[in-house]
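Sample entry (446 residues):
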Amino acid sequence: MRGGGVFRRRDPARTQVADEAAALIRRGRTAARIGNFTAAAHAHAAAAEVIRAGPADDRALGDVHDELGDALLAAGRLEEAVRALDRAEQAYGRLSPRRFPAADRIADVQARRALAYGLAGAGGSAIVDAQSAVVHYRQSPGDEPGLARVLAVNADVLAGYGDPDLAVSSADLAVRIFLQHGAEDDADLRRALAVAVAVHGAHGRHDLADQAGTVTRRIGAAPSAAWRVGAAPGGVPTVLALRQRSARPPALAVTVATGLDAARQRLGRHPPRIGDRAVVRPAVDAELVVPLDRVLVPLGPGERSADAAARLGGTLARTAMELLPLDLARGARLGLEAHALLAGASRLESEALRYQLPSLGPVWAAVLLACSRRAEADGDPALAMDLAAWAGGVAEQLFPATLVDREARTVAVQVLDHHGRLLALRGEQDRARDATVAAARLRAMS
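Predicted structure, serialized as tokens:
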């Protein structure tokens, strides 16, 4: 058949790269199966170098960084895991959706990156990535095990840094799906059960906590941070367990609902609503599992809900700024919830957020700055840096508005000063100097 057909000459260069990379990947998988994740990471990193040096192949590059991220996560090398998973997401994002739909793989990458962020103490980033993964999987019918995995990670991250009501709803739903599919040996089932025991217990729902504890004892073993590569010897702690052992354990009794109630009592602020629905629901309903559900459940997916998320995020951010001087714990809870909603609206490409950034951006940056300062005062440098970095990103987007808006300029200067100081304390002098110079330019405009 002229002009080719099913029998085509193989590209020798591509074949050599594929064979060399495949041998390294097999070596990495063998090392991972016996729990030697350092060796696994070394093999996968070598495979990535081979693929990058060969003809462009984003699918192969995404896959190898995906497995490299797994190995680094299981080895506890969390910052390196985040970088590898970033590269996996970038490579998958370059693929043509018609030739190779990669949305499921990107969502898996986001969930594992959320876990890495959470274990590293970067709670603001962890909540946003976990939310993205859940929203995607819930819109992909048929992959319930995938949904259960990301729900379990989401529950763990939220129990450590976010709304405990959402965390336990996510955990309960994950447990239900896992048990329906007979997945009693899944490490992420144990992750979800740990959240259910802790949060139900903290809220006095001892019957539900006991049920989760009974299942935990029946299946045995501790949860692992590994995703597909298996459990590390002795297990890796959950995000919740790490937070509980830290100098500032999570306040599991402080929810978004209690924060809104405090705002009503102390500020006279009525709780926001979406249409005729309250934005909080009883945790035992397992109806809301991520911050975006406060708009997605009543409105459904689409442009309308993305814009509603941006507006609700702005409302919660303003409420948090008023409440923080009066009630640090509840103000910070609302502040991080506002961040998750605004970041989620951005990922959903909200036009309201894009066109109203001069209005929504300053309060978003300000609440992140306030929460970062609180984390620093509490002796939580990882969370302080993560939130300061997010605030810096928002402030950067505000630069056009700072030319004419004094509030935006003031917030941007404060953010840059704070972020620059944290960077200097961490030894990142070049980035700290850049922040200091940018702040000085803004001050000169005043």
